[in-house]
């Protein structure tokens, strides 16, 4: 069974990693704008080091990023040249509501996204929009503590109503939160949470998670009233966890690790908190504050499809002595001796994508969408400025083969595939430009130097051929 003719081939970016123009057009300050590159980045991302404003001692890569804000027409034209059917992008919350609690939206910000969507539609490219992709207005962090406060649901609701009304005839596919489960790992980076000394951090995180789950359900409810044709999805940082050995303890550990992440989508897709999560809260002495109507809201407003990112599988052991770890997208995971690793230590596992697709489809029985997948690598231009990124082509080729097998041989319902960082952009985890994912090279280095000129890599024409053949020609 070949992929459907409507299969959404494309690429993915995030506002905070590509737009730049961080205070232009009346945009307000966002959490990502105060997250520096360099040695303090991870501490800030995790909410361990409080940084709520910029200083002169750090470099903040989001401020210019790759300047998509001024160059979107050039970039979208390149996406169209590759034949994109779909472009996944995110909205910068503070472009629309600069402080987050503003009564009226910022027209300049709304007009910018009108122009971006019009440019996409001009080429027949379907926008796939993430409402919030790791950004929270700093004003809301300072005044109410971000998602630890129930008030965030109201502000998010206002944002969604504004977006759905404004773009009801331009955007069909929406994602409520990017990688919602990353709240557990990067609480400030994903959700604007900063912790006080001696605070029960787990309780704060799961209360914030409840507020986001309620907000996601409210967004889904609003969307269906404004345009019943909208398709609303959730988004998971996905990857199956393997047991280190066949010891039952290892298998149990792998299952519980997966549940930590499935928990979010279980609520968004099934409409209720699973029993294993309720028992976990009991053990952790966490008592979620719910309002009347929350459970009914969650039950009645489940998502239409499940989207996820996939970069590599994870590995875990129940034995504390087995502790050789590698950094894999900021998830702690053991090194798998059967897998190769990227230059950043991420484990490359194409079959793991097929395994993850099957696990998610078996669990939810809803259409799936791969919205991030790619290889971060150092690209070195030759004397003519050309990049032969055969390593990237090989990575993507094997992952495409894997998801095609999941569709053809396993019967998984897959809507599309948008590679991560279709144009080079700032790395979310490291803040680097040198960790490149794109088919399009952007001339900029980790210190912010460069012309920002765009050029096509070898993978550009390869992906163009893949799309035109609907995934049949992978050579």
TrEMBL record:
The active site is at 372 (nucleophile). Pfam families: Glyco_hydro_1. Gene3D superfamilies: Glycosidases (3.20.20.80). GO terms for biological process: carbohydrate catabolic process. GO terms for molecular function: beta-glucosidase activity. It comes from the Bacteria. The keyword tRNA processing does not apply. Keywords: Glycosidase, Hydrolase. GO terms for cellular component: cytosol. Signal peptide: none annotated. PANTHER family: 6-PHOSPHO-BETA-GLUCOSIDASE, GLYCOSYL HYDROLASE. Belongs to the glycosyl hydrolase 1 family. This is Amygdalase. The gene is ascB.
């Amino acid at each position: 069974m070949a992929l459907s003719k409507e299969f959404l081939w494309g690429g993915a970016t995030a506002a905070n990693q590509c737009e730049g123009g961080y205070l232009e057009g009346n945009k307000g300050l966002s959490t990502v704008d105060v997250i520096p590159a360099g040695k303090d980045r991870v501490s800030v991302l995790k909410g361990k080091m409080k940084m709520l404003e910029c200083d002169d001692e750090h470099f903040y890569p989001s401020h210019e990023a790759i300047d998509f804000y001024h160059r979107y027409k050039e970039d979208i034209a390149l996406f169209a040249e590759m034949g994109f059917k779909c472009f996944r992008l995110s909205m910068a919350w503070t472009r629309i509501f600069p402080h987050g609690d503003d009564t009226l939206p910022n027209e300049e910000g709304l007009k910018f996204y009108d122009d971006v969507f019009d440019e996409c539609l001009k080429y027949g490219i379907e926008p796939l929009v993430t409402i919030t992709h790791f950004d929270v207005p700093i004003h809301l962090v300072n005044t109410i503590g971000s998602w630890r406060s129930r008030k965030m649901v109201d502000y998010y609701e206002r944002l969604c109503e504004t977006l759905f009304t404004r773009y009801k005839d331009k955007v069909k596919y929406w994602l409520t939160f990017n990688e919602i489960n990353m709240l557990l790992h990067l609480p400030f980076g994903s959700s604007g949470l900063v912790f006080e000394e001696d605070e029960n951090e787990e309780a704060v995180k799961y209360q914030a998670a409840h507020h986001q789950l309620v907000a996601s359900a409210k967004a889904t409810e609003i969307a269906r009233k404004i345009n019943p044709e909208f398709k609303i999805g959730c988004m998971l940082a996905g990857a199956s966890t393997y047991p280190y050995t066949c010891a039952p303890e290892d298998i149990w550990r792998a299952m519980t690790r997966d549940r930590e992440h499935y928990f979010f989508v279980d609520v968004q897709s099934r409409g209720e908190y699973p029993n294993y999560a309720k028992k976990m809260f009991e053990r952790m002495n966490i008592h979620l504050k719910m309002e009347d109507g929350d459970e009914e809201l969650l039950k009645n407003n489940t998502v239409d499809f499940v989207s996820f990112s996939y970069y590599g599988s994870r590995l875990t052991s129940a034995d504390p002595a087995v502790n050789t770890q590698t950094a894999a997208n900021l998830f702690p995971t053991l090194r798998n001796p059967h897998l190769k690793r990227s230059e950043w230590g991420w484990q490359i596992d194409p079959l793991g994508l097929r395994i993850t697709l099957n696990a998610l489809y078996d669990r939810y029985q809803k259409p799936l969408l791969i919205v991030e997948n790619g290889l971060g690598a150092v690209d070195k231009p030759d004397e003519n400025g050309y990049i032969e990124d055969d390593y990237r082509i090989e990575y993507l080729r094997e992952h495409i083969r894997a998801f095609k097998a999941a569709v053809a041989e396993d019967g998984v319902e897959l809507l599309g595939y948008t590679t991560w960082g279709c144009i080079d952009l700032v790395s979310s985890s490291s803040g680097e430009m040198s960790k490149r994912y794109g088919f399009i090279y952007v001339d900029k280095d980790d210190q912010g130097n460069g012309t920002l000129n765009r050029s096509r890599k070898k993978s550009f024409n390869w992906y163009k051929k893949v799309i035109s053949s609907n995934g049949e020609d992978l050579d």
